[in-house]
Amino acid sequence: AAARRRPGRVARYQAKMESGGALALLLIGELADALRHGDLVLHYQPQVDLRSARVFAVEALVRWQHPKYGLLGPGAFIPAAEQSGLIGPLTQYVLDRALAQNARWHRDGLDLTVAVNLSARNLLDPHLVDHVSAALGRHGLDAGTLELEITESSAMVDPRRCIQVLTRLATMGVTLSVDDYGTGHSSLAYLQRLPVTRLKIDQSFVTNMVSDQPSAAIVRSTIELARNLHLDVVAEGVENDETLLALRDMHCPGVQGYGLGRPVPPPQVPELITRIESRIPEILRSHRPSA
Ligand code: C2E
Ligand code: MG
Ligand code: MG
Ligand code: MG
């Protein structure tokens, strides 16, 4: 009813559905096959601890190697997968691939944590915890090698249930993060009840923080808030050295972004980690922290 009183909004929504919707519909028909054929691939982007200059985790980001359309980003098919019921199988696929890859890295002596993104629907799936536990077992990995990212808004869909599921995962030893923090409308009181380890500050604030004072203020206060709640923080969307230095001056513990490394296919991960770990101290050394 609220939408009906605002025709401009409805028209914009419909236009959006029509422009993005046709391809999404076309793709969704093919997604089940793509999962069966293994056409979805994962790229990995490092998350860096600024204090130690070490890469402590890599985030798995799904892409679709489509025979006709080339490499498609998640924006092209995740929303449709969420609406069609395929997000369950897709998440299981991603989880299995990510853990298989991490088991290989561990065998090669690379001790990494892999972060996997969950959708709101996954949190409502009564089998989620069993699937996670089975996947870890299948690949012989400790729960401590897995991080699961839930968005702030998906944690708000069914708070009671979310707390239950996250508590079971945390008890297993899985690390939990709140993704896209700052874009949802969760209350602090609620967030504090979630057994999460980390807040990931949404890139929309971080990318602009050097030139946009309000964004900088949001980033700064989030870092402070997280510290007071004993939560770890990763700033997402760090695109350049200037932003990295501003975050260091705010005592931000973790960073992730194109300026450090874009998401890359698995074979490029070890070299990217080495490059980042040698570059960070150089950047930090070349600029003294401001008082
Ligand atoms: P996200 O989890 O917040 O992931 C970060 C996104 O920001 C990634 O886009 C990453 O490539 C991009 N990014 C990283 N650094 C920078 C930077 O410095 N600047 C800018 N402008 N962007 C940066 P991507 O890979 O296109 O993924 C978009 C979103 O799709 C993800 O956001 C996540 O919500 C979703 N997604 C990706 N993989 C999966 C998945 O396996 N399952 C589910 N459910 N969602 C996924
Ligand atoms: Mg994420
Ligand atoms: Mg994010
Ligand atoms: Mg995001």
From TrEMBL:
Signal peptide: none annotated. It comes from Pengzhenrongella frigida. Residues 24-277 form the EAL domain. The chain holds residues 464 to 754 of 781 of the full protein. This is Bifunctional diguanylate cyclase/phosphodiesterase. The lineage of its organism: Bacteria, Bacillati, Actinomycetota, Actinomycetes, Micrococcales.
